[in-house]
Amino acid sequence: MLAQNFQRKDAKSQSRKGKQRRSFFGIFFATLLLCVFALNSSSCSSNPVDLRTLVPAESLVYLETADLAAALQPMVGSDAFKKAAASQADLSAVKGVSVAIAVTGFETSEERLTEDDSVGRVQPKFVAIADTKSWNSTAVAFAERGLGGFVADVYRTEPTLEKSQKHGGTYFKWTAKDGRKAFALVIDSLIYFSNEETSIDKCVAVKRGEAESIAKAGKLPTRVPNSLASGYISTDGVAQIAALAGLSLASQSSDDEEVQSAVAGLLPQLIRGTVTDIAWNASQSSLGYEDKLLFGVNSETGPVLAEVFAPAGNNYDALFQYAWNKAPAITLYSLEKPNVAWRGLLLTARSKVDAFGSQMIGEFSNAFAEPYGISDAELFLSGVGPNIVTLRTDPEGEKVALLAVVTNAEAVRRSLLKDLKPDKPNSDALGLDVLRDEDTMAVFAGNIIVIGDPDAVDACVRSKSGGTNLAAAPSLASQFRPGSSAVTLSTETEQAAAVADLLAEKNSDAKVPTIAITETRFARTAIERRTASELGLIGWLVEKISAE
Fold first, then answer.
1. What's the structural domain count of the chain?
2. Range of the domain at 473
3. Is 531 a member of any domain?
4. N or C: which end of the chain has fewer CB within 10 A?
């Protein structure tokens, strides 16, 4: 979600506070969905409005759909939704309704809980515009009743309402007892809604031709034919979100203020020095949705990443015999030279930060490999083949394993954690070479290494004889198409029920598995991630809204 909390020193306090203060942005979108369903289906014959022409050019984030019903249809029509929902969602009332949301800035604040603990709050300044395609009287009624109820829900108290005529339309201003405010403006069939008055004023100025729109600024990608929804994060938006992400990550990294400060400065440098902007497009696919994310990269970084992450051919047959097919997430890496890719990634990252940040990256780079029992990542990758499999066997992602074909046994063994020692009982039981310490196990099965959490490794090794591996599930294995540097197949069971709970009514004990296949490719100008899934990124957003 765009609204987020970050907690210093006390994660439990953050959780309590997060429940007390709900996401303004999230509840608005949820209320928009629910209240628009309640609008009668009568509509006026006004010409459709291009909402891009109403949004300020300096907007940091922009999301839009030309038809809310069309954007939601693949989700509510999916097998997962039908299994999770006790009733079907009726989208007829939102057919043709277009919606745009723009984030114009972020506001940070800090609230002290105790003498030692405090909560930081990041609130987006946003404006949402909905073209209801209805008569003005209907749109006004919706704003007064529907949005008024929403504001009361957010503020957890009945706010005072001031209603007036402004900007040639009906203007609403809600004020909570603690002074927080919300604003709406209805002009013809259009509803503007925001958590700050200035954002609506800026949109009105754009509508009158007094300020440039995001459509004329040339920032937004060209609309894709048959697109269900799309979005864009500008260069300035990337920079501001990177700074906020740095603060959030820093608060979770350590209680040491010096470490927090270093982390808070490192991540923004990395992101700003690499990513120029982000574009998203959702379209319909045979599985349901295809979400395409394009991370624009600068002219220095793009060619380097495209070269070092060039995909190799797919040859996973031997590894699939040990890849447990019940794992919630499985990722296949295809890299011509894995060690060169790793080295290129580190060198690129270190070139984007200051001297202190470069030192930190160098010192902590191998920490990413430690959960797999590897102390020297580059040395390990120099001793394995181009195809690597990683997986996690638990929903939390704590039990992980890595599978690879060993091409240089000496390099691989030297790269492992020094605490790993021969485990004779397990070696005798499995008939394989096993190394073990308290937290990690490595199994050498011929020229295959399976290493990581002992439970995850055990599940993989036993899957070969138990017939629960990817080699024994060709329909599942066929989801991994060649041509990508990385492909992830993930499964989860909570999303469908959350979506059904918001848009219809969920079955009481609904736990419906849904899969998503994400492919990552590196080009000279962008990093492309394509995800095919039943519920899509739209479903993920609805799930987060439902959790509010």
1. 2
2. 312-482
3. no
4. N
